[in-house]
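Title: Prediction job returns without error message
Component: structure pipeline
Severity: low
Priority: P3
Assignee: unassigned

Description:
Job completed but the reporter wants confirmation the result is attached to the right record. Sequence as submitted:
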Amino acid sequence: MRLYLASGNPHKALELQAMADRWRSEGGTGPRIEVVSAAAAGGMPEVVEDAGTFVGNATKKALALHGRLPPGSWSLADDSGLCVAALGGAPGVESAYYAGPAGDPGANLAKLVLAMRGVPAARRAAEFVCVLVLAGPAGLLKSFEGRCPGGLIEEPRGSGGFGYDPLFVPSGLDRTMAEMAPAEKHRVSHRGRAWAQCVGWLAAGG
């Protein structure tokens, strides 16, 4: 089964394909899933992500790409972000553009470090949120939400992952997401949890 990913972010395509491969290697049932870039469908259409919610933005992206796919195809969109309690839920749906329209991950991370400077440990709670939306034949739309609660450390640690991973420690663990091996991160991450719901639904026949 081919899923066209409604994103220009290569990290997301790689992560989702790795999750699909791990699902099969660990005995998961259902169709073999191939996650392909929107480039395979001529590129991702421009979408104004102004819905104000993760599910709203993901739905807009899934439908935009699905509109240019052959009949019977499936598109998959991801909208995700980091919600920090001390910042009133920011950066939230603006996580990719927290430091400006260029969408520079390094600048976003640096801005968050600065925004949280001096905030005590007791007030550094945060959670990653991911919503996946599938758009399929006959107008089918299905969404799946994954959350990963945790907290922010004061300075980035680790060289893996991307985005805000070097600053975020999942609840119950002592390492940042950037210090985890990919398979370990996928088991606890917001995207991994949303994906498990999605692939489980597909395995059950949709």
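Comment from assignee: result matches the submitted record. The longest strand covers residues 141-152.
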